[in-house]
Specification:
It is built from three helices and four strands, in the order E-H-E-E-H-E-H. It is α+β, with helices and mostly antiparallel strands. The protein has a single domain, classed as Alpha-Beta Plaits, CATH 3.30.70.930. Strand 2 and strand 3 form a beta hairpin. The protein is globular, with a radius of gyration of 15 Å. The relative contact order is 0.26. The model has no long low-confidence stretch (mean pLDDT about 95). This is Thiamine-binding protein. Belongs to the UPF0045 family.
Length: about 100
C-alpha cells in the first residue's frame, strides 16, 4: 500500500518546519520506501507498518504542539511493490510519448 499523509501542528505559529521535521524523521528512520514533498510524505509498505509510522509521526508532533491536523490518503492494492516509483514512471512514459 501507499500512504500519503501530512501532519501539521496547530497553535504554534506560522513556521512549522521544525515540527514537520520531527514527523519526517520518524518516516526516514522507519526504513520503508518514502518520498517527501512540499505538501505530503508518501510511504510504502504493509498496512500495519504504514499505520505504525503515521501514528508515531503524529505522536512526535503532538508531543510539542497543542493540536495536530492529519490528512491521510491510502492506495490499498495488495501485491503491488515499488508503487512509489512505478506510478510516476507510468505517467512519465505517457508524457514522453506525446
Amino acid at each position: 500500500m501507499i500512504v500519503a499523509f501530512s501532519v501539521t501542528p496547530l497553535g504554534v505559529g506560522e513556521d512549522v518546519g521544525e515540527y514537520v521535521a520531527d514527523a519526517v524523521r520518524i518516516v526516514r528512520e522507519s526504513g520503508l520506501p518514502h518520498r517527501t514533498d512540499a505538501m505530503f510524505t508518501s510511504l510504502e509498505g504493509e498496512w500495519e507498518e504504514c499505520m505504525d509510522v503515521v501514528r508515531r509521526a503524529v505522536a512526535a508532533v503532538e508531543a510539542r504542539a497543542p493540536r495536530v491536523s492529519l490528512v491521510l490518503k491510502a492506495d490499498i492494492r495488495p501485491g503491488v511493490v515499488d508503487g512509489l516509483t512505478a506510478k510516476v514512471a507510468t505517467v512519465d512514459r505517457y508524457l514522453d510519448e506525446g
